[in-house]
Amino acid sequence: MSSNTAHSERTRVAVVGLGSIGGVIAGLLAALDRHDIVACVRRPVTRLVVERAEGAVEVAIRALSDPAQASPVDWILLCTKAQDTASSVPWLRRLCGPRTRIAVLQNGIGHAERLAPLVGAATVVPTIVYYNGERLAPDRIRYRRAGEHDFAVGADPDGRGFAALLDGTAMRILVSPDFRTLAWRKLLLNAIANPITALTLQRQAVFRRDDIKTLCLAILEEAAAVGRADGARLAADEPERLLATVLTYPPDAGTSMYFDRLAGRPLEIDALTGAVVEAGERHGLPMPLNRTLLTLGRAISDAATARGQ
Fold first, then answer.
1. Can you list the positions of beta strands (E) in 190-296?
2. Which of 19, 97, 239, 305 reaches 20 to 30 Å from 2, CA-CA?
3. pLDDT in the model for residue 6
4. Helical (H) or strand (E) element with 158
5. How far is CA 132 from CA 99, 109, 153, in A?
6. For residue 76, what are the contacts with CB-CB under 8 A and spacing of at least 6?
7. CATH number for the 179-308 domain, one of 3.20.20.80, 1.10.1040.10, 3.90.650.10, 3.20.20.190?
8. How does pLDDT run across 200-245, given as a tens digit for each residue?
9. Burial class for 88, CB neighbours closer than 10 Å (0-12, 13-18, 19+)
10. What confidence score (pLDDT) does residue 309 get?
11. Tell me: the pLDDT tens digits for 34-67?
12. 45, 61 in Cβ contact below 8 A?
């Protein structure tokens, strides 16, 4: 096989957003040297280091900082925060073609419905991200596993295609026929882990407090009722199980919302707690605790936005 033929058969992958989630996946995919990876970023970098328990991975990375430089690719991995999706539209317009698949590596639910108006004929592939990433520097990210799997996708051709794309990275992918339940389960985890760490300005160790455990169980009971009304198959003891899962995370691990508050950035509160409250409103369910978290989170987020203007 000629080198030109081999190059033409490499999958073209654009990673939009090189933060804690995007930096990990971009680095691990680039280390395979099986795909053509380009990072779409505000400030270009030339190398990327992913710290792992097994040892660091260091790779060269091609980065673009101007959407005008981009051209259609086979896969887009959308790794910005949900509230930054609008700022990604110039990239999406240049990167999307009729055969492009867009894996959404964002928190929240309803990825396909939210992205469809922005991507033309491209296909949106919802994913659930489980791993923990911490951005240590613009070119250095710490990757920690946070459970049995790193991703979950639907049991359809596009979900399986995403799993195949990551083959060889050692990331563990769950392919499930009940993606809705998994998505709600992850949303419920985020609905306590992110707001509580951001509001208290503490890492996961805060969940070892008995009073915080009691509060989290009440928040989860309220949100689980919404998830069940929305079609998720959540067990009667789901809140207890989810809190037990949170308590398995390293005490010194942070959350994306915690790191955003430390940095004075807007919070992803609407994509997480806001999604729970919105669904509850659709189903006519009261949510006093989640509404309180949403109000407090929005106040912090709006102040950060005002400072950045």
1. none
2. 97
3. 41
4. helix 157-165
5. 30, 18, 17
6. 13, 14, 16, 92, 95, 96, 100, 101, 102, 103, 122
7. 1.10.1040.10
8. 999 999 999 999 999 999 999 999 999 999 999 999 999 999 999 9
9. buried
10. 66
11. 999 999 999 889 999 999 999 999 999 999 999 9
12. yes
pLDDT(5) > 50: no
Residue labelled with tokens 């980065």:
63
- CA 86: distance to chain centroid? 16
Tell me the C-alpha distance between 113 and 129, whole Å.
Answer: 18
Q: Residues 186, 228, 261, 265: which is the catalytic one?
A: 186
Q: How many CA atoms lie within 13 A of 111 on its CB side?
A: 27
CATH superfamily of 3-176: NAD(P)-binding Rossmann-like Domain (3.40.50.720)
Q: Which residue has the tokens 């033409």?
A: 8
DSSP string, 12-55: EEEEE--SHHHHHHHHHHHHHTSEEEEEE-SS--SEEEEE-TT-
Known active-site residue 81: no
N residues, the chain: 309
* Residue extents of the structural domains in the chain: 3-176, 179-308
Packing angle of the helix pair 288-308, 273-282 (nearest 10 deg):
130
Does 179-308 match 3-176 at the fold level? no
Q: What are phi and psi of 116, to 5 degrees?
A: -50, -45
Q: What six digits make up the tokens of 1?
A: 């096989």
